[in-house]
What we know:
The complex is a heteropentamer, with two copies of chain A, one copy of chain C and two copies of chain D.
Chain A: H1 7-32, H2 38-56, H3 60-82, H4 87-106, H5 128-147, H6 149-157, H7 159-164, H8 169-191, H9 193-207, H10 214-239, H11 243-258
Helix pairs in contact in A: 1-5, 1-8, 1-9, 1-10, 2-3, 2-4, 2-8, 2-9, 3-4, 3-8, 5-8, 8-9, 9-10, 9-11, 10-11
Chain C: H1 2-18, E1 29-32, H2 35-45, E2 50-53, H3 68-76, E3 79-82, H4 89-97, E4 101-104, H5 105-108, H6 122-139, H7 144-170, E5 176-179, H8 185-190, E6 194-198, H9 209-222, E7 226-229, H10 236-245, E8 248-251, H11 261-280
Parallel strand pairs in C: 1-2, 1-3, 3-4, 5-6, 5-7, 7-8
Helix pairs in contact in C: 2-6, 2-7, 6-7, 7-11, 9-10
Chain D: E1 3-13, E2 18-28, E3 32-36, H1 43-51, E4 58-63, E5 66-67, E6 78-81, H2 95-106, H3 114-126, H4 142-155, E7 160-164, H5 172-187, E8 191-195, H6 199-205, E9 208-213, E10 215-220, H7 224-235, E11 242-245
Parallel strand pairs in D: 3-8, 3-9, 6-7, 7-8
Antiparallel strand pairs in D: 1-2, 1-4, 4-5, 9-10
Helix pairs in contact in D: 2-3, 2-4, 3-4
The structure holds adenosine-5'-triphosphate (ATP) (2 copies), magnesium ion (MG) (2 copies) and zinc ion (ZN).
Amino acid sequence: MEIFAYSFTQRALIAGFLISIISSIIGLYLIYRRMTFMSAGISHAVFGGLSIGYLLGINMTLTAIVFTILLIWSIPYIVKRSKLQQEIPVGIFYSSSMALGALLLSFHKGYTTDLFSFLFGSILSVKEEDLILTLLFTIGILVFFIKNYWKIIFIIFDKETAEASGLNVYKLERWILTLTGIAIVLTSKLVGIILSSALIIIPAATVIPFIKDIKKSVFATISLNLISIFSGLIFSYYFNIPTGATIVMVATIFFLSSLFIKKPTNH
Amino acid sequence: MEIFAYSFTQRALIAGFLISIISSIIGLYLIYRRMTFMSAGISHAVFGGLSIGYLLGINMTLTAIVFTILLIWSIPYIVKRSKLQQEIPVGIFYSSSMALGALLLSFHKGYTTDLFSFLFGSILSVKEEDLILTLLFTIGILVFFIKNYWKIIFIIFDKETAEASGLNVYKLERWILTLTGIAIVLTSKLVGIILSSALIIIPAATVIPFIKDIKKSVFATISLNLISIFSGLIFSYYFNIPTGATIVMVATIFFLSSLFIKKPTNH
Amino acid sequence: MNKPKIKLILTLLLIIFIIPSTSLSQERNIAVSIPPIGSITKYIVGDLWKISVLLPSNTNPHLFEPTPQIMKELEKAKIVVINGKDVDLWAKKLADSAQKDTLVLSDYLKIKEENPHFWLDPILAKDIANIIYKKVSSIDPSNKNYYLKNLNKFNKQIDELNKYIIKELSIFKNKEIIAYHPSFYYFFKRYNIKVLSYIEEGEGKEPSLKKISEIIRLIKSKNIKYIIKEPFINTPTLGTIQKETKVKIVDMDPIGYNKDYFELIKENVKILKEIFYEQNR
Amino acid sequence: MNKIVEIKNLYHRYDQDLILENVNMEVLEGEFLAIIGPNGAGKSTLLKIIVGIIKPLKGIVKVFNKDVQSLKEERKWIGYVPQKPDLEKYLPLKVKDIVALGRRVVNNWQKLTYYDFEIMDKVMEDMEIKSIEDKIYGELSGGQQQRVLIARALAQEPKLLILDEPTVGIDVKTQNKFYTLLRDLKKQNKSIILVSHDIGIISKEVDRLACINRKLYLHGCPEEIQIHGALKELYGENFLLLTHKEE
Amino acid sequence: MNKIVEIKNLYHRYDQDLILENVNMEVLEGEFLAIIGPNGAGKSTLLKIIVGIIKPLKGIVKVFNKDVQSLKEERKWIGYVPQKPDLEKYLPLKVKDIVALGRRVVNNWQKLTYYDFEIMDKVMEDMEIKSIEDKIYGELSGGQQQRVLIARALAQEPKLLILDEPTVGIDVKTQNKFYTLLRDLKKQNKSIILVSHDIGIISKEVDRLACINRKLYLHGCPEEIQIHGALKELYGENFLLLTHKEE
Lengths: 267, 267, 281, 247, 247
Ligand SMILES: Nc1ncnc2c1ncn2[C@@H]1O[C@H](COP(=O)(O)OP(=O)(O)OP(=O)(O)O)[C@@H](O)[C@H]1O
Ligand SMILES: Nc1ncnc2c1ncn2[C@@H]1O[C@H](COP(=O)(O)OP(=O)(O)OP(=O)(O)O)[C@@H](O)[C@H]1O
Ligand SMILES: [Mg+2]
Ligand SMILES: [Mg+2]
Ligand SMILES: [Zn+2]
């Protein structure tokens, strides 16, 4: 096909493939862990870190990642101290990091580059270095989740008993949160906030009501992600419409149609 | 104080007072209902409605509100069909409405306006008409929540038995969702996305671990909201920094400090 | 704990209502939304009016926040001059909320297009100056002659600028360009600069796959060496195009913080010249 | 006597499996019916159908002589204690607030009257939770929580009380009090449907017994012999039956 | 004999109220200890402290001769069935997956061996859930769910089994099987701590009985007379004690 003659569409496809894997794993985890909005929350919270980096003139990406990881690490602490649900610290960081950013930037007179565009990546503008980094991260996340699969399942299912049986719940959850955070920052930077949140939530939410087997649902989610990305790319080319938005709409249409299909269990 | 000599600060204070009431009620409801991110989700989803209005050349505010209410009404339906958690449809609308907006706008050739600026509110730029509208809405929401207080409590606490006892859960929840949606759009338009999300979540989350009495916590949340707004206004005036962001930071500091105070129940 | 607090709050609210709104001196203060409009206004009103520019440094929808300082300027102003359309919708909102006498330039300019960047066309800048002149003279008729003198002087300067631009750019045969955002739309039209494509056609529009491939094709076939963007824009799409084509990205500033209007235009003309020089080699 | 509940040709399935098959049953006014059967027999499902939370696949379910799905006001007269209620534990509700919910259902969500408070006090004393009425539900022990849910249902002063293993986790003393209470209610002509695995107590207390395992195996008076036969059929083999005797 | 659990001068409070006051207790190897007491007595709290989920206010809690908070590898040998587990029901786990979790804990999260599957099959047959091993946990009936949780604990082949009202919601037949199983475990020198309100069964099965109501009232062998005295003290007044007898 003519569309795949360009090297940037080829890179988009490869990135799409890797991001499908990352977002499916993270998406299923977040939904079962009832932290659906982690992705929207974190991708906005990054802004605080960016503005610190920008003001201090140090590497923005690095500052943002360090800032985000610190925020993420504080989540279990806050939950422990306040007994609030996990999503609440995320919700607080969502607004307070943006406010922090706005406040810091207000000290900078003159033009400030739109820091949000840091996260306005586009699947069409993936670089080769990005691909390598993403590949490494995909391998890392795959290895981690495969190796700790049953531990993670135990913790999600019954945290208290998991702890009683000697699992180091705190440490493991911190690892998962860290990987989740990096995954969100990475994919947002690569394909933008909207597309990244969409790929994390929508295909996983489409698959979950149908497939009552977690391992199978990982594969199904990855496939759905890939199909959305692939057909989104093609549609956007032939109808000359924005690629990211088209991919999101394809995934949404899959989700909406799935509502009308009979589920295995109905009561 | 000099700061309150200006009519814009006076309007800001009155708006702050009304919005404190609205966001405290909505915030406590959303947290107990485990829909913390409703506010972030809806304020982004509005974008889809705006772009429809823009393209069709009809009143944008109206289209946006109708669009948002339709989305909100579909939430219980989607939950019923898919058995997913309530936040998931909100998460899906968060990305898909923005994508829909971007897609629709791409059909419009030539220059398009930045639709997000619809939600460019600022507490300093509240108009008198806004105040009247907000006052009416505050009264409405107060009456509704006071009148249906125990019904709402019953539904949150034990939906199934509430239904079995003859409560029309579906209808009541639809009303609450509608009011919540309007409240979010209204306050976002008035004071901006960040400040509105922050006032909804942060003070409620600060109060909940301390006060084990829902009615008292409403008053405490309203007070905390007011104190944050009031001191935020004063700080921002004397340090010449953005008001909304300052208010958010004050509320965040209250939240963070509260973590170090001993809670009534600790185990 | 809540009762005393509520009382406190109510008393505070009462105090606020009781304090009479001190009438602030609104004599001869003009607030303008963006710096170039400020500069043009300055040419008309001279030192008779104090001009304050409202534009906050960051107007991202997520972050936009006027400081109380800006609101104070606005409150003090007798007139608020706003460009109109998309660029300063926020200022329009602020001015409306303060119930100010606002002058929205786009309402008076006879332009049917949506693009709001009129000020970058020197000939349209004349119209802008004229609109401002009419407004200030109607408010302050006693100094009408002074304003008129200033207007004429400004118009003359613009004519010179116009000639200068035509002269500077006429030496290039091939004046083709690709720009990211259509901020110099009217300028390019005025001086017969052929815009092969705008990558982004308006706020919030993500360039499509097809668009990007077209741009790449254009750059290759037309031997385009530069893409023009605004200094505050930072989009990965340009990186993609750059990677495919080795095109260079240059900034052209449409706003000019604290810059004189004529300087701003000349600066940009200089950049254009360099681009054309390279592309005509 | 009035038929309070009447079930005819009831069928239900969740997925593929038929969970209830051709169930026919009735409960009269002032009757105490116990339902027994092994785990997974479909007892809770049957109760949910009677309460109207689950719509059955097929069959007629009449409560107060009306189709249960069309009940409106009459729902107030049904008190229901679910087996595994899905409660929002984060909500800081006091014990008395939860019991009051039962009262509010019947007084149409008006302000509670003196009479309402009297009834609440009575049921809280009956369930021995009066002393913890100001405690937060989520901070109670398992047995205390269960007592609160029973008290809520009792506060409704229901004509039909539907109890799905209500004594689970409740200590022996309160269990005894509870069964005494049920006897009182029966005297006041209330109807009771009780699911329980405590066959010993049941056989002593109830008017009628329904043994269920997908199908209805038995529906009659709990004569010892009859029970034994049914239990054998129900649980497959003869097993040590523990019966309770007063000392 | 080895002391598996040893508790000295244990105090605990949640808010203001002291829930456990100067509790001293021990469980030997191969011993079956039952804990009884009214609702809200602090039984579940005590078990959570023994398991190490709650850190007590004061006192020494040793399990396997080590401070329970410092246990690492030894935790695998503790099998725990909580009273009201806070489970994520949305997660579509099969019965056999959940039972396997118990096995994975002991085989260090390695691939399950043939031996592991044998044990899983055995406990699933014991708890009569082999036939539903492929069903999703969230779609089971209340009693079936409880059996799965017991099976998970048993699959660990624990040296110390801690059971908080495990037979709740379980049908009579399976209850009997379960107690037979506990007797077997005892013979294999496993230690068992059981909380239950079923005083009849307990008095028949256990080696030692602890009656708790904030303080430890009694800690000894369940001779009938002794029980009656303790129960009187515990529940305040003499009440109808129901004991079980084999027919
Ligand atoms: N999280 C908590 N916060 C505050 N108080 C609590 C909490 N959990 C338990 N309690 C209180 O501690 C006391 C003991 O509770 P516990 O669950 O240990 O009782 P129990 O003996 O297991 O009772 P049951 O037989 O009902 O299960 C109760 O009075 C209860 O109200
Ligand atoms: N939501 C559901 N989805 C699918 N199957 C279900 C669902 N709920 C229950 N079932 C199945 O229906 C059957 C009957 O369940 P029910 O809860 O009615 O049993 P029960 O008689 O109350 O058992 P128990 O004594 O254990 O409470 C069980 O086999 C169960 O697996
Ligand atoms: Mg049941
Ligand atoms: Mg307990
Ligand atoms: Zn956003």
